[in-house]
Specification:
This protein is mainly α. The chain is 80% helix and 0% strand. The protein has one domain (3-200, 215-410): MFS general substrate transporter like domains (Growth Hormone, Chain: A), CATH 1.20.1250.20. Helix 1 runs antiparallel to helix 8, helix 6 (105-137) packs antiparallel against helix 16 (353-365) and helix 11 (230-246) packs antiparallel against helix 15 (323-347). The longest helix has 33 residues, at 105-137. 53% of the residues are buried.
């Protein structure tokens, strides 16, 4: 592939990733949506349902979608379908909240959760196509740089989005609750619509599509891959373990709201803090992942272990100091993205990228019920108990992965 086109592909991927990051932050499933839902209904079940839908519908169907997408010589049409569907969903829910306000709260919540379900499923389809497109259009030596740069640029725009969120959710904004959230949903749709232009810049080469496997043979084939690829098995186990930290992230903002009674305007500050944490750490993740993506994953697990402990002990301080929790969470989340995505492309044979992406998606989906576990621990015991439980599991992961890396090093 010519250098000019390679650069165009690289930049196109960055345009999409940057505005996708802003879109996600403006309707953040860990901060914005929990705050919105908790303002309508005092229910830990509904809070837990948000990340559970996002994880399960966003990942579980990927194994099925992979068998459908893989035979096609070009994958961009699937990605465009996913993006435009997601744009439409946020426009619909934003306009609905703007028009009806809180006059029909059950309808608003039902629409929100239904939209999140469809949004996540189309993202699952798009994710399978995206992995193969990036694998075909970004050179192997540039992938770690691509993922880290994408995270860094996305973090910069998301950082600005955090201050925008702070203003929109403050008392000085023109619209009060819930129409201020409607503005966020509409802006999220707009950012995603801008981001889709990046994929018009990418020239996807035509590849020889694999013959579609009949489902009665497809799933036994996946089991065979898992039996034969030990590195993939270890990779998946670590990715599932990392999901135990994901289960607790939506509860940080709820914890600070209930334990300290933070002002709504601080949500934007925390969002910006999380973005800063991710942005400042990206250069390190890029350099480390270029040599050893597993080391980035190890650091990710360690950060996931210490973050909930800090959340417990920081509450006596000024609420602005709570930003430390979100800085660490953002850094750890970006480490997870760079580390796992880079390592997946290292493990996956070129002709099986969608299948490997689907397998990882299914593994991630197995963690979908975990927010309910966190909610149950919180209801039965306390926020602190759930945070300590998560920290212990993450430290177990650090020790396990560290031992595996040492064995591979000296093998």
């Amino acid at each position: 592939m010519a250098d000019d086109q390679q650069k165009r592909n690289f930049n196109g991927g960055l345009v999409h990733g940057t505005f996708l990051s802003a879109s996600i932050r403006l309707a953040d499933v860990d901060l914005i949506l929990p705050a919105f839902v908790s303002s309508i209904a005092d229910s830990k079940f509904l809070i837990a349902l948000l990340p559970s839908i996002y994880l399960s519908a966003g990942n579980l169907p990927q194994t099925l979608f992979a068998n459908f997408v893989e035979p096609h010589s070009k994958k961009k049409p699937f990605l465009f379908f996913a993006i435009y569907t997601r744009v439409l969903l946020w426009f619909i829910i934003g306009i609905t909240v703007m028009v009806f306000g809180m006059s029909m709260p059950i309808m608003i919540l039902s629409l929100l959760f239904a939209s999140l379900l469809i949004y996540s499923m189309t993202g699952s389809l798009g994710g399978v196509a995206y992995t193969d497109i990036i694998g075909k259009t970004i050179e192997r030596t540039s992938r770690a740089k691509f993922y880290a740069t994408k995270q860094a640029l996305g973090s910069l725009l998301a950082f600005a989005s955090g201050f925008l969120v702070r203003y929109i959710l403050s008392d000085s904004f023109f619209y009060a609750f819930p129409r201020n959230y409607a503005v966020l949903f509409l802006l999220s749709a707009l950012a995603l619509l801008i981001g889709v232009t990046g994929f018009y810049m990418i020239k996807e080469p035509t590849s020889v599509g694999a013959k579609r496997t009949r489902f009665k043979h497809y799933f036994p084939g996946i089991l065979q891959i898992l039996r034969q690829d030990r590195e993939l098995r270890v990779f998946l186990l670590v990715r599932i373990l990392a999901g135990f930290h994901i289960m607790i992230i939506p509860y940080y903002i709820v914890f600070f709201k209930e334990e300290v009674g933070i002002a709504s305007g601080l949500i934007g500050i925390y969002l910006a803090a999380r973005v800063v944490g991710g942005a400042l750490s990206n250069l390190a993740w890029m350099r480390i992942a270029a040599n050893d993506a597993n080391l980035v994953i190890l650091i990710c697990l360690f950060m996931a272990a210490v973050t909930p402990l800090i959340a417990v002990f920081i509450t006596p301080l000024n609420p602005l100091y709570f930003s430390i929790v979100f800085i660490l969470a953002g850094s750890g989340m970006n480490a997870r993205q760079v580390g796992f995505n880079t390592q997946l492309l290292e493990l996956a044979p070129a002709e099986k990228r969608p299948t490997y992406r689907g397998i990882m998606g299914t593994a991630i989906a197995l963690t979908a019920p975990l927010p309910f576990l966190a909610g149950a621990i919180i209801e039965m015991f306390s926020f602190q108990a759930a945070f300590f439980f998560t920290a212990v599991l993450m430290f177990v992961g650090v020790i396990g992965l560290g031992i595996a890396m040492l064995k591979n090093h000296f093998a």
